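Build the 3D complex.
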Amino acid sequence: MVRALREGDEAAFAHLVDAFGGSMQRVAALYVRDRAVVQEVVQDTWVAVLRGIDRFESRSSLRTWLFSILVNIAKTRGVRESRSVPFASIADDPESGEESVPVDRFLGDDSAWPGHWASAVPEWHRPLERLLSTEVRTLISASIAQLPDMQRKVVSLRDVEGWSAEEVCNVLELSETNQRVLLHRARSKLREVIERSGLQEN
Amino acid sequence: MSSTEITCKELVELVTDYLDHRMPAEQRLPFEEHIAFCSPRAVYLEQIRQTITVTGALREDDLDQQSRDAMLNVFKDFRR
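Done.
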């Protein structure tokens, strides 16, 4: 693939666009809001990739290299943009004692079974295919957008883009523990969103 | 209740460690035992798994034609 790109093979480039283009747009959108700026970030990344391909050393994968360029460009643009349109600055400290499930769903210390579920966790009745409906996807997508900034980035990279924990830690400059805490909080909230939506009921 | 037993409340906080295979063996066994005997816990774990699957479906969203064309044009302009 790298050789084909160096030789100016258009089909190889088209293949890369199809493999990563959608993901690049979503990852860029984690840093910049404006749709037009997202497109610019992606375009600039492709230019940088084409310029740099001769110097690319296969120590990292092409994918890792491409996304590290994208994130750098997106960050720079994001900082510029945030001076005019700030992202919601909700407290998002992995060290804080945020609970994944509301405390009142567990029995208190004075009960016979402290820390156990106060009532059964209601089961979801809908088959997974139903959960994959456009309706649920729209809901999940909107809910991710409303998460605190770092939770949003972590869950998007891990669960939407399918990156490994290690890749996410590197790109977001997080410790492994904090990455996991943020991911866990985000997943817990999304689970709750599905539960509260009633979409999984019969 | 033995001292090694973990409560459901504590286990909820450990689900991600478990799914990421980052749980030490001495924690993993009590965790799996707990799931075997605690049905709300098993339901919760399954729901987290389903949540991950549903979230992952967002990855399938196709690149729109206009964006795709714009990206392909970068190549044409570059080679010119």
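Chain A has nine helices and no strands.
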